[in-house]
């Protein structure tokens, strides 16, 4: 029998829209989830993956399927730079190449790349991976969010998993007006008007969705950025009681787990340095973090309570222009990727 890399059947546009865009980078999990010598099984974009950290510290991600009989590699043994399947001992390295078949040394599986592997990067305490439609193609360049690589910015990663479609999580961020209602009793979004006008403003990396009649009072703007990964940047004003430093910002990403669940990554940041940086980090851990989690919980409870097809029975208005733009963009991209997969 001819050896081959397992590949699922072609995905439809609806499949991609439900489980996430391909041919881009996605945040996978916090870095500290995968310790040196550890093996972890994760579902992302509707598929099962095994994540492990080699003895040299490098993170590797493989399809969780042994090329021999399809057993889960995540139940195998960590051997430094490779995983040995528990079922028959077949050893696979981080590139997906079979290094050894102990039951039959020298058999034709050895030396062949038979397991799909994902390119990875680590930034800001998170592991990112490239999910390509062509497993053999090189990943696109990744331009990381400025707050995650700027040494003048201090950030904290907040990670959670929600039982809601990934698109609900992204649409929530492209809906600034919900801050004045859902979060109106929070420490940072109590001010500002409960009515507004919005506009879309194009940028060289995506677009802003912003209020035209208010700034610096509430959740007044958000920028969607498409730089190899999709992420949002937003800013919420802070009262003086929040300590020194610039405005409070959030970089957010939402990665599909399956069609009805997602992993959300929020980096809370401020531009601070010197002693102000130390004060900000102390205040965050001792006072502000709990308040931020309370706001995040409000979002989670609301989105998890919505029906999976809630977006099929809506009556939208001007405040929803950002959501409409987002959906059209992702729907068009899903159709393009489905067509390319079918042609391939």
TrEMBL record:
Every Rieske domain range: 25-129
Top-level taxon in the UniProt lineage: Bacteria
Keyword Oxidoreductase listed: yes
SUPFAM superfamilies per UniProt: Bet v1-like, ISP domain
UniProt keyword Metal-binding, yes or no: yes
CDD domains xrefs: Rieske_RO_Alpha_N
Name by which UniProt lists this protein: Aromatic ring-hydroxylating dioxygenase subunit alpha
Record InterPro entries: Cholesterol_7-desaturase, Rieske_2Fe-2S, Rieske_2Fe-2S_sf, VanA_C_cat
MF terms (GO), sorted A to Z: dioxygenase activity
PROSITE patterns: RIESKE
UniProt keyword annotations, A-Z: 2Fe-2S, Dioxygenase, Iron, Iron-sulfur, Metal-binding, Oxidoreductase
